[in-house]
Design goal:
The protein has helices at about 5, 20-30, 50-55, 100-110, 130-135, 140-155, 175-190; strands at about 35-40, 45-50, 95, 115-120, 120-125, 160-165, 165-170, 195-200. The protein is α/β, with parallel strands linked by helices. The protein folds into two domains: about 5-135, CBS-domain, CATH 3.10.580.10; about 140-205, Histidine-containing Protein, Chain: A, CATH 3.30.1340.30. The strands form three sheets. A three-stranded mixed sheet has the order 3-4-5. It has a three-stranded mixed sheet with strand order 6-7-8, with helices on one face. β3 (about 95), α4 and β4 (about 115-120) form a beta-alpha-beta unit. It is elongated.
Length: about 210
């Protein structure tokens, strides 16, 4: 499973000159946690996150401070543009990146989304939710995808496939080590698969 298999595309992007309030509205409307910031050629410049856009933008309610002896602290200047709040330490990863590597980067760097690049251009985004969605895929959907992949390779009648909790078991009509290897590779590439067991019919108990 690769980034291109699970990414959201087309991706909602903003420019450095986008008003911060407009970027906030995009996050709220789409339920995103971050937006890629790109130049006029869609090249990645950075990301702007929920935290970036929330900072210093929620005023204290004066009703909660009626009995204070002094006035509330003055509100700091709030930046107007995405360019003033975004992070330029953004990591983009190529279309063909293994989803396992994406998950590793997200956990290691404590980021919730990773922009996906085709060359230098941002063409999609993968979030933690996208990865969780693949883990949660229904076994019947996984089964259908695995059968489709195997049928495209060598015909569907020779493969008996079952799926339970993301664990795929494939039994081949023939005893062919090369085909078992290919079946393993094809099944492992299907989103939601947790592990794969491939055996030949002759290996099965009578």
């Amino acid at each position: 499973m690769r980034a291109e298999d699970i990414m959201s595309s087309p991706v909602v992007k903003v420019r450095p000159e986008t008003p911060a309030k407009a970027a906030t509205a995009l996050l709220a409307a789409h339920g995103f946690t971050a937006l890629p910031v790109v130049d006029q050629d869609d090249r990645l410049l950075g990301v702007v996150t929920e935290a970036d856009l929330m900072r210093d933008r929620i005023l204290p309610d004066p009703r909660a401070h009626l009995w204070r002896d002094r006035e509330p602290d003055p509100r700091p200047h709030v930046p107007d543009l995405v360019a003033q709040v975004m992070s330029t330490l953004a990591t983009g990863m190529p279309l063909h990146t293994d989803a396992a590597e994406l998950a590793k980067v997200m956990l290691r760097d404590d980021v919730r989304s990773v922009p996906i690049l085709d060359g230098a251009r941002v063409v999609g985004i993968v979030t933690r939710r996208d990865l969780l969605r693949t883990i949660a895929r229904d076994d019947l959907d996984i089964l259908a995808d695995v059968r489709h992949q195997l049928a495209a390779y060598a015909g569907g009648d020779r493969w008996a496939v079952t799926v339970a909790d993301g664990v795929v078991r494939v039994v081949d009509e023939f005893d062919d080590a090369t085909d078992r290897h290919v079946a393993t590779v094809l099944a492992r590439a299907v989103p939601g698969v947790q592990s794969v067991e491939v055996a030949s019919r002759v290996d099965q108990p009578v």
